[in-house]
Amino acid sequence: MAGLFVYGLGVALTVHAGIGIAPWDVLAQGISIQTGLSFGVATVAVSILVLICWIPLKVKPGFATVANALLVGLFADFWLMILPDLTAYWQQLAVFMLGVVVVAIATGLYISSRLGSGPRDGLMQGTANTLDKPFWIVRTAFEGSVLTIGWLMGGQVREGTLIFAVTIGYLVQISLKAFKIPKG
Question: How far apart are alpha carbons 162 and 129 in whole angstroms?
Answer without folding.
Answer: 27
